[in-house]
Design brief:
heterodimer; A: 611 residues; alpha/beta; Pyruvate-ferredoxin Oxidoreductase, domain 3; Rossmann fold; 4 domains; six-stranded mixed β-sheet; 20% strand; globular; B: 341 residues; eight-stranded mixed β-sheet; 27% helix
Chain lengths: 611, 341
Amino acid sequence: MQEDSTQSPHKIINDFCVMFSNINGTGSSTANTTVMRALFEMGIPVSGRNLFPSNIKGLPTWFTVRVSKDGYLGRVERDHVQVLMNQDTVAEDVKKLVPGGLVLYDEAFSMPETLPTSLAFGIPMETLINELDIEKRLRSYVGNMVYVGVLASLLGIDMERVAGAIEFHFKGKTEAAKMNFHAAQRGAEWAQANIDRIAIPYTVEPMHITDGYILCDGNRAASLGTIYGGVQFVSWYPITPASNVIEEMNEFLPMLRKDPETGRMTCAVVQAEDELSALGMIIGAGWGGLRAMTATSGPGLSLMAEHLGLAYFAEVPVVVWDVQRVGPSTGLPTRTAQNDLLFAANISHGDTEQVILMPGSINECFEFGWKAFDIAERLQTPVLVMSDLDLGMNPWMGKPFQYPDTPMDRGKVLWEEDIERWTKEGKLWGRYLDVDGDAIPYRTVPGNRHPGATYFARGTGHDEFARYSEDPQVWQDNLARLKRKYRQARALVPQPIVERQKNARIGIITWGSTHMPVGEARDQLAAKGIATDYLRVRALPFTMEVVDFMQEHDRTYVVELNRDGQMKELLTLEAPQHAYKLRQLSKVDGLAMTAEWITQRIWEDEDGCHA
Amino acid sequence: MPDETNDIGLERADYQGSPNTLCKGCGHNAIIGQIMSACYELNLRPEEIVRYSGIGCSSKAPTYMLKRSFGFNGLHGRMPSLALGAMFADRTLTNIGMSGDGDTASIGIGQFKHICRRNPPMLYIVGNNGVYGLTKGQFSATTEAGVSFKRQGTSRYLPVDICMEALASNASFVARSFAGDPKQLRQLIKAALRHQGISVIDVISPCVSFYNFAKNLHSYEYAREHEIPLHELEFVPTDHQIMIKDFEAGTVRNVKLHDDSIIRLKKLDKEYDPTSRWQAFKVLEEAEEHHQLVTGLIYVDPDIPSTFDRYDLVEEPLNRLGNGRLRPPRESIDQINQMML
């Protein structure tokens, strides 16, 4: 990419990053997402990232919009265009500008004496806003639209698309939409009159690549997937960045889950007093035969540890979404990470193994949303779905959500007539009796009125008939069966996705949202002459394909967003014979992984290998 | 001669549990005995009862009753959440949660208070012995200050009053009883099982192994000597009301529950109105002040909406809904996709 192009007639088309710096609580996100939506509506691949503080009002917040003709969605480390609306961060912000980039700022700000570009323009925000015929109290909110208009004018964003994006946001509130668009128009007019667009190296052109695509954040996708999975009971405790997985349900449940005959709900949502209780409730509901889920993040998952052991051992299906943020402890509550994997894999004391799904896109958030229930109920065990803040709280483009392609699998549940039939056939039922030889017993649920159906569930030692037992053999046999049952998950969980390049000797393994920069990094590496094969793990337990992949490659880089290389550690445990070939490529600083970082690290390492 | 049966043709034996491993003389035995009798007398089908408990001697007790029922013995202090979630599965069932003073007032105080305010239809009965029995004699949150245990020294802190906590958390039925007063206990349990919301019964249930000290509240001797029943209590089910005898006016107070059954409270020494929260707090405060064991129905509001009155759920049990009623129709996905921008 040509960086200093002030004098150049060449334009950089549909391939740059716009950063907005704002103060949180000032309504800037409406303006910033308007830009993103307008670009998306022009058919240009776009991604948006909100970097926000753990605060309600008054602290710095940043929003970046990446425009990428190649469809790359990962974060980039430098900004090409900056819209600076926070005096406090200006000095630091401009350090991230590429030389020759475009800077728009509020004219009233004092700017650093030297900037890495000559393309810096002060917008007379106050004057322009005051000229608008709007109530004083609304001015600062609506005023944000002024810079939207300026930007649209300079980058060539279609003002009709801006109008459409504003209308979408205000959903039928015509007056508000009009007022906001008027402000944007005012900004555009000012830009036309005061800035020579020819000098601006960045421009957008319609592409139509995003036709038929949707924009959605991962949490909303998770919420919808859960609803299409037939969720019947939800309990949760508010926590960033997981809350809106549940809050979206309040919007969509009345639309999608009102019984058509009676108009009454087929799902209940209970806000619990804490995460201990949230998980307790869904275990109760799961035991009762309901599809039950919760969503949380690291601190909440810590509180759920004991209950997850109970669910594992008493064999109760539940679904737990962990939208990961930076830990340990309260950590960085509003920053992203993939650092709960090791904890989740064996969460709870004793010999515990959990089934884990790892969505890497909004489409997988939706798909795993419903699939998690099928797996949980088939196996009668918890399923944890590991998303993260970056995927969960930011808007992503993706293909339209697909209606579930398999019917709901409610697993092995016996009702009155089943027990009656079994009794007649002389077939023996015990809650933990392995009748089919697949380590998955049959269960009954409260409400089953057959006298032969009841049993007493417990977290203490129990035999095949759910009777309390401290017998050494009974304990050993039961735990061995649970292990066999866990292995059955391999056939049920989403298989890894493998992409190969010709003659690749090295491999890359990643999981979750780090998928986004990895794809881009592979293209960058290929351009440098390094071919790579790629495997994205989508679930635990690992399948043989993962082990084979490690075996096939001279070196495999495991890319992830944590300090300790948690996926690499799990792979090491899974296949110690191949562990010497694994390279840890992990970091955690609160920001999403970038392709540049991955490429640089692999390039350096490979160069070293060849030297 | 055929064995005696109740109105649904079941014998008392049908309400029995698995072999009991509690200590001989443990107050909890009396509690589960009265629960079994109450269920028998109320003609409840064991398969339509669900037992819940946490951890501790009291929480083991549900195993020793109603073995034809479903049950779930969960985590320490977490019975309320487990029970609440399970109750959503089939709202026609009768729910019995059994807990102890450690399970309720120490590790589980948070969940206890929240289940009170949510008011689900359940009997929440506490076998309150003032000591951790299963771990062999440590202080609980209801042990009185100044009590000395063999390996613990002397209890330093003031106790928690479970009824007071329940009241403060808006429980709709709060009672206290004594394992040595089976007659009263059984009437209370029957009323509790018919109440539409949560019924907390705090039962002083002496631990004969670790804390049956005659000078302290949680002993048979002390409780017998200091029990002050608020009233003589009789539960009259809906279908037995014809048998109610007339009492002298002013001596009996009837509390009508939501299913039209009646709790008859016959006045003893003093007038007591169990529908007044203010009186309830007062009577508990006075009892503590005078080191007395006040028993009976301390508070009831039969009309507070239950948990399920607060949700507009389909009539039939949620766990019997077919897949077709749970997964939104295929055509809805297009509409959803159009909203995703």
